[in-house]
Amino acid sequence: MPSKWEQIVVDAEDPARLARWWAAALGYQIVYEKPDEVEIRRTPEDLPGLLFGSAPDPKTVKNRLHIDLRPDDQEAEVERLVDMGARHVDIGQHDVSWVVLADPEGNEFCVLSSRKPGQ
Asked: What SS3 class is residue 25?
């Protein structure tokens, strides 16, 4: 039997602050919290979750793994996330249909355009 996808672990200088940012961005809730790690999920039963763990070193290079978000309205979602503290970043993406942002600790993620019917 294959494994179940439990969570993605994100190293964070301030796990509680970053978990709360992502929970607000995704509409998730905190399901577990200790001083050095916080897990968020859509609901307590839904997997996978995002687990933010304490890492003392700041992020210094481009992520090798990132989250893609697909909102109904890309422009409105980018504006909302930037208002929450995300920032635009250039990772060499050039002319593409998605927008690359970074969360408050510099972790890159993409905001995709809305899905067309039949996609």
From this structure: helix
